[in-house]
């Protein structure tokens, strides 16, 4: 069952207050949701939406273009899709290798301004997930920061869904440590994207500045036909 947007925002605010931290930004994860559902949330004031699949996202962007929404790619990016992503998205949260940095910089239209970029970190070293190793963050960040068409904004992670709360929290702590080190060397860095519908309170407690919520906002995703 979907939770109303005002309740979600209240929950985020309360979690942040309990942790003594500023409330994070909410990214509504709209993958597999119809454009009508996105428009309904936009009518309530939500402006930032996250998509996993490029072609699906481009169709929604075209349909909803008059609404002036902010679009984030949060799914794995293949280098052969770099051109449409660089052209149409506002943020890419899943940059994890140098090849993507060069491709996104090459295709970003100058008139759109710099593309906001987050480095995706495979913080729990899961073979099933994308993301760079924690030790590769500095080099990748330097390559992004060197591109005028890109703007390094921070880090993103999808930690393993450990049943044990302490193991989940440990991943968020390690991400915060990486983020603070990155921000110390790159003053423009301001975004730590972590936490989803099931664990956003833990992520906020450890310093998330942006949380990605889909199921709680939209309800269960439609099943494929």
Question: Can you offer a commentary on this structure?
Answer:
The chain is of the alpha/beta class and 225 residues long. It has a single domain, classed as Alanine racemase (TIM Barrel). The chain is 40% helix and 18% strand. The chain has an eight-stranded parallel β-sheet with strand order 7-6-5-4-3-2-1-8. Strand 2, helix 3 and strand 3 form a beta-alpha-beta unit. Helix 4 crosses helix 5. The longest helix has 21 residues. The chain is globular, with a radius of gyration of 17 Å. The protein starts with a helix and ends in a 7-residue tail after the last helix. The mean pLDDT is 94.
Instruction: Kindly estimate the percentage of residues that lie in beta strands according to DSSP.
Output: 15-25%
For the largest beta-sheet, the strand count, sense and barrel status come to: 8 strands, parallel
User: What is the annotated CATH architecture?
Assistant: Alpha-Beta Barrel
Give the N-terminus to C-terminus distance in angstroms. 20 Å
Assign a percent range to the helix content.
Answer: 40-55%
User: Segments where pLDDT lies below 50 for 5+ residues?
Assistant: none
CATH class, named Alpha Beta
Strand order of the largest sheet: 7-6-5-4-3-2-1-8
Number of strands: 8
Calculate the mean pLDDT score and round it: 94
Number of domains: 1
Form type? globular
Our Rg estimate from Cα atoms comes to 17 Å
What is the CATH superfamily classification? Alanine racemase
Q: Count the helices. How many?
A: 9
Q: What is the N-to-C succession of helices and strands? A: HEHEHEHEHEHEHEHEH
Q: Find the structural class using helix and strand composition.
A: alpha/beta
The CATH topology comes to TIM Barrel
